[in-house]
Write a structure and sequence with these properties.
- The protein has a 7-stranded mixed sheet with strand order 3-2-1-4-5-7-6, sandwiched between helices.
- The chain has a domain of about 120 residues: Rossmann fold.
- The protein has 8 helices and 7 strands, in the order H-E-H-E-H-E-E-H-E-H-H-E-H-H-E.
- Helix 5 packs parallel to helix 7.
- The chain binds S-adenosylmethionine (SAM).
- The site of S-adenosylmethionine (SAM) has 18 residues, from helix 2.
């Protein structure tokens, strides 16, 4: 993460927008690590997430809004930096969201994407993280929630290249963790698995999916679980 922090520390972006902010994990990072900013806006389509994130940021210079990223309620060229963190695989219409992100970005502004990937060199504990993530995505889909498996590196690159950014740069990184059984992600993903098993209680014909969940949980107990490798991609709007 040090490399990511170094990159952020060199960016001065007065007006920042974070898309699909969830619980605002990236807003925390932006707030702490950007060289400078004046105001951060964050949006998410899920009301619960927005309420939660709003409660985390009483700061006057951070606002969280409920908003569909396919129709951002901001004027053209409103932001110096637009970010999307670990969320592309949740987005149904990337072309539309990408074009909205570019519309609200000022010419010369920075667009930054971070996304975990499923291929490449991953440790057993990272593979477990990916397996758990994919199983939760399957549960979401069987409940009618759009959630794709995570992408391969080349797929992420192709999606970002479509945006036509200038001077596109890429960092391939992961957050080093100590004992994968004690890692925060291990506790978090175990809890998410338990929640997903509960959420699917009333699903019919879900025995195979349930047993797949029990298998990934067993894998998590055997190997532990740490965050998968990610790509950070950033470039400039012409
Ligand atoms: C994995 S969370 C990422 C949250 C945050 N960026 C982070 O890394 O902590 C994905 C977010 O995408 C939002 N989301 C899901 N479907 C969406 C959609 N179709 N359009 C926009 N956002 C969506 C969800 O509400 C969720 O908060």
């Amino acid at each position: 993460m040090k490399d990511v922090f170094d990159i952020l520390s060199q960016i001065d972006a007065p007006q920042v927008l974070d898309i699909a902010t969830g619980h605002g994990e990236f807003v925390f990072i932006l707030k702490e690590q950007l060289g400078s900013y004046q105001h951060i806006s964050a949006v998410d389509s899920n009301a619960q997430n927005v309420n939660y994130a709003q409660s985390l940021f009483p700061d006057e210079d951070i606002d969280v809004y409920r908003m569909n990223p396919e129709e951002l309620a901001f004027g053209d060229s409103s932001f110096d930096m637009v970010t999307i963190f670990n969320s592309i695989h949740h987005i149904l219409n990337w072309d539309r969201v990408g074009s909205e992100m570019l519309r609200v970005l000022k010419p010369g502004g920075i667009l930054m994407v971070t996304e975990m990937y499923q291929d490449g060199q991953q440790s057993e504990a990272q593979r477990t993280y990916i397996n758990v993530h994919h199983w939760i995505a399957s549960v979401d889909r069987s409940l009618g929630i759009y959630h794709q498996p995570t992408f391969a590196k080349e797929q992420i690159l192709a999606l970002v290249e479509k945006l036509g950014l200038h001077r596109l740069q890429i960092l391939d990184y992961y957050i080093p963790a100590g004992d994968p059984h004690q890692a925060e992600e291990c506790r978090y993903m175990r809890q998410r698995c338990m929640d997903a098993l509960k959420r699917m209680e009333y699903l019919d014909n879900a025995d195979a999916l349930r047993s797949e969940g029990e298998n990934v949980l067993a894998k998590l107990e055997t190997h532990g679980c740490v965050g998968a490798r990610r790509l950070l991609l950033w470039g400039y709007k012409s």
